[in-house]
């Protein structure tokens, strides 16, 4: 599913990271929904020895503050605001808002595409921003469930307090963020998204990125009897445009429950192979998904 806009005539953006990174995937999925052409440049989180690692000088030199985090967005559709040929941006929430504002996905944009962000000074924008600030110290921490399976230095077993924290996060989304009706119009809607609005936003995409990673790999079960709103929202999100294409890496990776070893702090070889296969499949899926709107590809090496 795609819409007609002028984004297909722009130079392809570059997104650095890997499809199994939750923030990376949220940004890449958003770009698909906006029909923004982009190329993926692999950057392996935490790796220093490889030239494609995020702690290698090749990656560190991309930003003045020498970021080690993915994703990084590089946009060379220069508007001369900073006098640089390439605009480099870090932090997933900032990247998501930039993409929407730059490439026509706000409520005040005159196109038939998704309105994943809101106009300045509106309550919808304030609520979206509010969730994305909250996200970093709440929903984002659910990633420990996933990281514990693929990073030997992380513990896969959660403490009682950590498990309680995750349950509280799900409860906050279930009865809080998904139940904040903003107007009579929204209250009449059968579908409620984060902030209580009747259409999805980048806040939903960011939240879903974390939760889908652990549900699709069988690391977290969302009890639909306990979290009715959250469960319904997860199902609704799975029907958004390009959902399946954006989550091929996770579906390829499959069940991770009981698939790691922390006794000797090593990654089981079969898991390492699965990670590689999932990454390859995810990148191919993103490339194929763009085939119906990506007309101009600008190749550029880092």
UniProtKB/TrEMBL annotation:
A Pfam family annotated for this UniProt entry: GST_C
Domain GST C-terminal, first and last residues per copy: 121-268
Source organism of the structure: Fragilariopsis cylindrus CCMP1102
GO terms under biological process: glutathione metabolic process
Superkingdom of this protein's organism: Eukaryota
Gene Ontology MF annotations: glutathione transferase activity
Name the record gives this protein: Glutathione S-transferase
PANTHER family documented for this protein: GH16740P-RELATED, PTHR43917
Lineage start: Eukaryota, Sar, Stramenopiles, Ochrophyta, Bacillariophyta
Keyword Coiled coil: no
Keyword ATP-binding: no
PROSITE patterns for the chain: GST_CTER, GST_NTER
Gene Ontology annotations for the cellular component aspect, listed alphabetically: cytoplasm
Record key words, sorted: Cytoplasm
Domain GST N-terminal: 11-107
Localization annotation: Cytoplasm
């Amino acid at each position: 599913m795609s819409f007609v806009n002028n984004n297909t005539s722009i130079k392809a953006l570059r997104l650095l990271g890997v499809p199994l990174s939750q923030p990376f995937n949220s940004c890449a999925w958003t770009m698909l929904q906006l029909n923004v052409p982009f190329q993926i440049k692999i950057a392996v989180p935490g790796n220093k020895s490889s030239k494609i690692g995020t702690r290698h000088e090749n990656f560190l030199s991309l930003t003045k503050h020498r970021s080690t985090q993915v994703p990084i967005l590089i946009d060379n559709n220069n508007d001369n605001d900073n006098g640089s040929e390439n605009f480099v941006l870090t932090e997933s929430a900032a990247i998501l808002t930039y993409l929407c504002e730059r490439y026509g996905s706000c409520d005040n944009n005159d196109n038939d595409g998704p309105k994943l962000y809101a106009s300045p000074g509106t309550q919808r924008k304030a609520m979206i921003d509010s969730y994305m600030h909250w996200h970093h110290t709440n929903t984002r921490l659910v990633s420990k469930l996933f990281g514990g399976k693929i990073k030997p230095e992380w513990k896969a077993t959660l403490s009682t307090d950590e498990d309680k924290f995750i349950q509280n996060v799900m409860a906050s989304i279930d009865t809080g963020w998904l139940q904040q009706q903003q107007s009579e119009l929204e209250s009449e809607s059968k579908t409620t998204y984060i902030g209580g609005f009747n259409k999805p936003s980048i806040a939903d995409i960011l939240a879903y990125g974390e939760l889908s990673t652990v549900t699709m790999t069988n690391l977290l079960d969302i009890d639909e009897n306990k979290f009715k709103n959250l469960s319904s929202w997860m199902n609704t999100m799975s029907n958004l445009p390009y959902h399946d294409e954006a989550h091929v890496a996770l579906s390829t990776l499959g069940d991770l429950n009981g698939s790691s070893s922390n006794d000797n702090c090593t990654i089981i070889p079969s898991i390492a192979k699965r990670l590689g296969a999932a990454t390859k499949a995810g990148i191919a899926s993103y490339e194929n998904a763009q085939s119906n709107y990506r007309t101009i590809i600008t190749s550029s090496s880092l």
